[in-house]
Amino acid sequence: MKKIVYSILLVFISVIMVGCSTQSKSKSNKTASSRSSKTSAPTQISDASFKNGLFTIENITFDLNKFKTGPSATEGKDVIIQYFTVTNHGSKKIMPSDLWYKYVVATQNINGRNKKLEKGSLPFSTAATKDNNLENASVSEMKPHDQIDSLGSWQMISSTADVELTFYDQNHKQVGTRNLNVNN
């Protein structure tokens, strides 16, 4: 009788041990596979380019036109305004300003150091109404295959130092630059 009880107990403990062992292995396999999937995530292939004043990224083109400087909404400050025509070649709605400020950075060289400029705000006045309308267009949804005129602006640190626009791809690699000579 003792042998039967011991045999049943031994089988029961063996089943429990095997069950725990299998569960631990599956957990460690899941952890290892989640680690490897995090480290081996594929890098997004860049489709961004900048050539002859045309910046293309994510099926969107920004055709850069003229630029100018003007007063900022912040008293005593100036902004640099880059005008462009945006074309949405994609199949989804976009917000032009989201892409513009995500992939275009403006800097000024101040005392030998490149300083990143903050987004600018235009003052609202009757003289600036056209610019305000273009600025408003940049923050409005754009339908697929639509085209609008718009602008981007940055608050300048110095009203006499040139501004450099740097264009980046989805991997934050530089694809081009454009120098805006503010003294002309």
Tell me what the structure shows.
This protein has 184 residues and is an alpha+beta fold. It contains 3 helices and 10 strands, in the order αββββαβββαβββ. The strands form 2 sheets. The chain has a 6-stranded antiparallel β-sheet. The protein has a 4-stranded antiparallel β-sheet with strand order 6-5-9-10. It is elongated. The relative contact order is 0.18. The model is unreliable at 24-41 (pLDDT under 50).
Features:
single chain; 184 residues; alpha+beta; Immunoglobulin-like; 2 domains; six-stranded antiparallel beta sheet; four-stranded antiparallel beta sheet; 10 strands; 30% helix; elongated; signal; DUF5067 domain-containing protein; Immunoprotect_excell_Ig-like
Topology at a glance:
Layout lengths: L1 H38 L9 E3 L2 E4 L2 E12 L6 E11 L7 H8 E7 L2 E4 L1 E2 L9 H10 L8 E9 L7 E6 L5 E7 L4
Antiparallel strand pairs: 1-2, 2-3, 3-4, 4-8, 5-6, 5-9, 7-8, 9-10
Pfam families: DUF5067
InterPro entries: DUF5067, Immunoprotect_excell_Ig-like
Keywords: Signal
Average pLDDT = 82
Strand percentage? 35-45%
H/E series, N to C? HEEEEHEEEHEEE
How many helices in DSSP terms? 3
- Per CATH, the class of the largest domain reads Mainly Beta
| Number of E-type strands | 10
Count of the domains: 2
Distance between the amino and carboxyl termini? 106 Å
Largest β sheet strand count, sense and barrel closure: 6 strands, antiparallel
**Radius of gyration, taken over Cα atoms and rounded to an integer in Å:** 29 Å
Low-confidence stretches: 24-41
